[in-house]
Batch of 3 targets.
Target 1
Amino acid sequence: MARIGAVERGALDGGPQVVPPAFAGPEIGDRLAHTCSVWRDAESAFAFSYRGIHGASLRVRHEWFVEADAPSHVAWWIDEGHVPTWMEAAARHEELAAAGPSARAFDFRSPFDADGRPFTIDREAVRRYAPSPTST
């Protein structure tokens, strides 16, 4: 069974933290947060990211974090039992930034399924996973 590994602009014990090159500049300083997490599917990751209290916080992220000219997150499929590392996450982010979405590194606007085919996130499943933003 495949799971999705996702890295957003906080922490998984995946070894030493590595910052993707797009976020490594001194102008960013402490206005950058990283998250590396593992999800059962794209819909549960999407629901957490964009619904509920996390989604509400994302809508005002410009008040806390600097805007970067790079993808805000990257996702990819991993095998059961695999623990992604920060280095792996930074490399996948760099792939997405350089070449755009692919089966190896994608975002929620252009997701790929575990078999490497483009797909559409099931919005009904997203609603089942998370409360609406107005219920938080």
Target 2
Amino acid sequence: MKTIFRILTMLTVPFFTVFSSAGEKTLDKTTVSKLDLKRYMGKWYEIARFDHRFERGLIGNTAEYKLLSNGTVQVINQGYKEGFKGKPEIAEGKAKLPDPSEPGRLKVSFFLWFYGEYNVLELDSVNYSYALIGSSSDKYLWILSRTPQLPEITKKLLLEKAEKRGYDTSKLIWVKQKQ
């Protein structure tokens, strides 16, 4: 009986692995090699994102990061559903750096102990003024900025870098921010 179970396991694992990744594009998920978490902390404006259910319909999105004394990061995301005059929708979470040898690869959680990838793919290493964020999937991508608007030349640079990594940038939603 154990032998039959082993044979079935050996035959089915490769089968499911092939089909579970068949719909995913091959992405270059290489993260930045240097990230000073203290400099990364503060407020970031969401310039563009892929559509997903937890931010659907929101405008004026921001993310605020605060480094806590235990080394974790407090995350506060907010956006507006009914225009800028409405009450913001707020999501509080936490982030951690699982492996200091990969400083651009963080884990973020908004619910209990379920963590998702937060990969800093590109970063203005001089001023920390913009970032391109991805995950393990081609379904998530964000362009962040320290200001509500990014210069067109910077947008173009980040779009080119995202496309080279395998992302379909035509799916980006450009987020309305306060002027």
Target 3
Amino acid sequence: MKASVLTAALTAAAICAAPAFAQEKKTVLSLDTAKKMAAACVKLATEQGWKMNIAILDDGGNLKYFERMDGAYRGSIEIAQLKANTSTMFPMSTKQVGDITQRVPGIVYVPGVVTFEGGLPIMTGAGEHIGAIGVSGARSEQDGMCAQAGVDAVKDLLK
């Protein structure tokens, strides 16, 4: 009788402790995926004659991959990183952040927030935010086109 009570108590304790040991599975942006994104940006930029800086950050805002095309403006290095960082802080495009400033103008005073096109979040097919891409070097709408090319190039990998 004592053995069955002890077994029941240990089973109950194990069941109650199981959630504490369970680990949440999280999708991580791989270096290979980041490189494929940058390659797609470079391909489009080369075809169009644009010289781009491409920054890809993980969801924590850490630089995962950076590429500077020959002749790209040195000043655009930081802008590309800021665009990506904005889209890691807010899982939306930097263009959308700019649109929000029409209703919430104080956002433009937040250090490091970019409110013009060229930054996009990287989302899995399930809607998990795993990072962001920022592109700078041409007109903002062209930067946005390059960023979108990068995201589109890996959409099948992010399902």
